[in-house]
Amino acid sequence: MVRIHVKHGGGSDGDGEFLYDTETSSTIDEIAKDIIEIANLQSKIQCFAVEFESHLSKLQGDPKVMSLVRALSEATSYASKDQVIHNKPLSLYVLRNHTRNIEKEYLVTHSVMGLSSSNLQQFLSDLQILEENTVQLLWAGKELTRGKKLCDFIGRNEKTKIVIRLQSPIPPPASLTGGEKC
């Protein structure tokens, strides 16, 4: 298995990162799809943690919200950047399960927290979702071209470890036309 260390984002706390295992025979399209979905789920869990923290701190010790606290704690622990330090890759299926558990527990406990069920989508409105068709996978400063296999870039050694950065394409610089003034 090829171990891919994925780095994404660019927030103030540093970049999001995780490990992903794949085979050299995998296509870049398959890898990109999985990596982007994992990055989005990791960001979604971190967003839930930030948004729910203030509401849950007011209800600390309330048995009605303990299931949500537990689900959130397990998910943030699993999706943490610390998994890279412990050399544990993230699983797409486990992350999906954690986000479903958080959403399910939120729907059960939202009235206790003084929120409506529609607040769940409002929490995620500021979240920047990476889109598969616009994100570039960069390895060693070069873009991994879609349609090719990973072995075309790194060879056939299954014990390879590489670092990939997810990057949205840089928009062209804005021109000073129209209503803009210096």
Short characterization:
With 182 residues, this protein is of the alpha+beta class. It is 41% helix and 18% strand.
Can you tell me about this structure?
The protein has 182 residues and is an alpha+beta fold. It is built from 6 helices and 5 strands, in the order ββαααααββαβ. The chain has one domain. It has helices at 28-58, 66-78, 82-85, 92-109, 119-123, 151-154; strands at residues 2-11, 14-22, 136-139, 142-143, 161-167. α1 runs antiparallel to α2, α1 packs parallel to α4 and α2 (66-78) packs antiparallel against α4 (92-109). The termini are far apart.
- Mean pLDDT across the residues is 85
Structural class: alpha+beta
Shape: elongated
Biggest sheet layout: 5 strands, mixed
What is the N-to-C order of secondary-structure elements (H for helix, E for strand)? EEHHHHHEEHE
Strand order, largest beta sheet: 2-1-5-3-4
Number of helical elements: 6
Stretches where pLDDT falls below 50 for ≥5 residues? Answer: 175-182
Write down the Rg: 19 Å
What is the number of strand segments? Answer: 5
**How far apart lie the N and C ends?**
54 Å
The proportion of residues in beta strands is: 15-25%
Number of domains: 1
Helix content bin: 40-55%
Protein name: Ubiquitin-like domain-containing protein
Pfam family, one: CFAP298
Family: Belongs to the CFAP298 family.
